[in-house]
Amino acid sequence: MDGFRWKVGNGKLIRIWDDEWIPGKSFFYPDPVPANEFPDDLVSSIIDQQQGTWDSEKVERLFSAQYRVLISKIPLSSPPKEDSRIWKDSVSGSYTVKSAYFWIRNKQQSKIDLSHGSGEDNSEFWQNLWSPPTQPKVKNFLWKLCKNILPVGANVTDWVETAGDECTFCNLKETQMHALRDCAWIRRRWQGCEVENVYKLGENRTPIAWMKEVWRVCSIEQIQKFTSILWFLWKERCNQKYNNHKLEEGDIIPRAMSWIDSYLAAQVSSLGSTVSGATLSDSRIHQWSPPPVGFVKLNSDAGVFQNGGVGFGCVLRDWRGAFVGATMKKEKGSCSPIEAEARALVIGLVEANRRNLSPLIVESDCQVLINKLRRREEDFTELGSWCDEILRLAKVNEGLSGSQVIWSFAGRKKNRVAHWLAHSGSVWDRQVVWTENPPLSLLVLLEEDLGRGPCNRG
């Protein structure tokens, strides 16, 4: 069924080689093996139904290392639930009209990309495109450029049959690359500019290939200047074309540079006043705070490493700020950051329940996850399964004291001990637990959180 994929329950409805069921960055189908090697092709056949876990021997035999890692990260519910179909283009797995619109639009764009010889996954590039510290209008312009929807002559002709596709300035066909790279009007204005070499990266490239090359070889400062000047030139071109408003040729680049400097100065000023205000009003605003009397606070964090692997860290402290316990774990493989944060919470709750630590405040620096748990939002994806497991463990903890688990969001600086634990594991696939006598490096951080460490002394 187009647009949907399977979420694994008991695996009895899902065909291993023909259905979409393995969540990854951009794929859901496994690579098939010869049918005579494995005639039973239901996912249920690679699940140990009694233990409620994946049959590691079969998974090892059937799948490459890449897929073994992904499969091992798919949570299996206990008791087993039926398999379900979920909408793969929404965060929660729920079908909405809005998500269907974007799915159709992306599918059409994929056809356009393929027709231009580009079937690659550009998800990382899109994230990078929205990240430079430039004005939102510049980012919107770049997005339209890469999607080939700027109102140049060639595009307008496709939208309105009676429109012409000639360039106003040289009477050649006006495509996006003509308007921004090839036209004599634009070439004259780039001459002598300090980022002219960046402009020249566009030779013989499509718009998206041009931008990808810019992001690949240029510094953040160069990207910032180049993209802002490109937008400013586009704006001036449109002003001349439609409003008969004309700047002197030598004034455009200086005005663009002045506009960039003013924007950056405003950002720095705004940031500085915010930080200064926070510092003056409350010097402890970013410091960890103990829970109320009688409570234990669990802080958790996760780290997804660039070279592969995921780290988890959890620390437990009482209302006096006294160390109660900590755990850290490092695993091979990968998963999304929010899923890693959810798994860190599972590890922490398991440890708290094992030691009967209740009532409990659970604190994480992942606000999206904390909000989901507070609202108990319905989520049909694998993340939803981890949230269900977190809430199940929380219910067990509530049974120990009769008090509800409290979900709390904390910024990174309030969560730095758990952050350190998540990023400091040195041994793969082994969980380390401390119930007393933490190592010196951890003890120093714990003391600093209470304002007693070396960083807090005058």
3D structure, described in words:
By secondary structure, this protein is α+β, with helices and mostly antiparallel strands. It folds into 3 domains: 4-87, no CATH class; 123-275, no CATH class; 296-456, Nucleotidyltransferase, domain 5, CATH 3.30.420. It contains 17 helices and 10 strands. It has helices at residues 56-62, 65-72, 97-115, 123-129, 136-146, 153-159, 176-182, 184-190, 196-199, 207-217, 220-243, 252-281, 337-354, 367-375, 382-401, 416-423, 440-449; strands spanning 4-7, 47-48, 53-54, 84-87, 296-304, 310-318, 323-331, 360-364, 406-409, 430-434. The strands form 3 sheets. It has a 6-stranded mixed sheet with strand order 9-8-5-6-7-10, sandwiched between helices. Strands 1-4 form a two-stranded antiparallel sheet. A two-stranded antiparallel sheet has the order 2-3. A hairpin with a 5-residue loop joins β5 (296-304) and β6. α7 packs parallel to α8 (184-190), α13 packs parallel to α15 (382-401) and α16 packs antiparallel against α17. The N and C termini lie far apart (65 Å). InterPro entries: RNase_H-like_dom_plant, RNase_H-like_EbsB-rel, RNaseH-like_sf, RNaseH_domain, RNaseH_sf, RVT-Znf. GO terms for molecular function: nucleic acid binding; RNA-DNA hybrid ribonuclease activity. Pfam families: RVT_3, zf-RVT.
Number of helices: 17
End-to-end span in angstroms?
A: 65 Å
What coarse outline follows from CA principal-axis ratios?
Answer: globular
Query: How would you characterize the largest beta sheet?
Result: 6 strands, mixed
CATH topology call of the largest domain: Nucleotidyltransferase, domain 5
- Oligomeric state: single chain
Rg from C-alpha positions? 28 Å
* Beta-strand share of residues: 5-15%
What's the architecture of the largest domain in CATH terms? 2-Layer Sandwich
CATH homology-level superfamily of the largest domain: Ribonuclease H-like superfamily/Ribonuclease H
Side-by-side strand order of the widest sheet? 9-8-5-6-7-10
Q: Would you tell me the overall average pLDDT?
A: 80
CATH class of the largest domain: Alpha Beta
Number of strands: 10
> How many structurally independent domains?
3
Structural class per helix/strand content? alpha+beta
Order of helices and strands: EEEHHEHHHHHHHHHHEEEHEHHEHEH
Helical residue percent band: 40-55%
